[in-house]
Amino acid sequence: MADAKYAVAENATRPYAQSLIKKAAAAKFPEFQVLDLAAGTGAVVAALYEHVPKDKWDIVHVTAGDSNEQQLEYLKSRAAKNGWTGLKTSAVGGGRNDIQLHSDHFTHLFINFGVFQFGQGALPKYNEVLKSGGFLGLTTWASLPWYPYVKKAIEGLGKSDVPSEQEVQDILYKGQAWGDASFVQKALSDAGFTSVEVDIEEQTVSAGTPEQFVEALENPIKLLAGGRGFKGSDADKAKIVGALQQELLKVAQSEFGSEVKLQLKGLVATARK
Q1: Tens digit of pLDDT for each residue in 200-213?
Q2: Rg, the chain, Cα only
Q3: Which residues of the chain fall below pLDDT 70?
Q4: Is the pTM of this model over 0.85?
Q5: Assuming Cys at both sites, which of 28, 41, 47, 132 could form a disulfide with 17, CB separation 3.0 to 4.6 Å?
Q6: Do 195 and 94 fall into the same domain?
Q7: Is residue 195 located within the same domain as residue 224?
Q8: Are residues 25 and 95 located together in one domain of the fold?
């Protein structure tokens, strides 16, 4: 079920979304004009509507953008179910950008675990679209909590040449050091933001059953199955993905039993225009 799959993934991102919204409350505006990039299934949107009293929901206006249109459809249905009438969604990323960005328009801009999709070069534009005094909040992973278990699964298949966690981060972050607090601090300052703060926050979350944990790691598994130590055609790669998923399931069952618990370490960065 999509609901269960998305709920498990949001267990990891929702605590950080809530932290962003709590910090954003310091930016005093008569209404919320929010741009939520890499919105996914709506962790930030849900946290925002949780924070604002229901009788004031009419001051909340959110433009949620993501490259995954399936997740945006889920977010729209979630908004309809919960009465989040101030939400609109747009495809952005993956070669599309349906959001019209105007200067000095948004009071808040959030990017919850997605800034690496757009890169450091996009930060000056984010500064431009915020109103004076506007709030930027973004999060990134300081470490990859799933890496040790995927590494163990790869080794279980008899492969010893496993990319290091840093090498995997470099791939995911496209060569930019988004897992390093000093890099994030400098990147935001260089883009013209002020009052930049970067905090490290640790969370312990449920990643669901071992089966749900493996399903949630579909993309990292495909990434590693196509990399160093594995060679062959696309058909071979599909077999490798299947074998790696089965091995990871065994690892998760052995390590955790019926429920996977992960120790997360994220960077929470805030800044003002």
Answers
A1: 999 999 999 999 99
A2: 19
A3: 1-2, 93-98, 227-235
A4: yes
A5: 47
A6: yes
A7: no
A8: yes
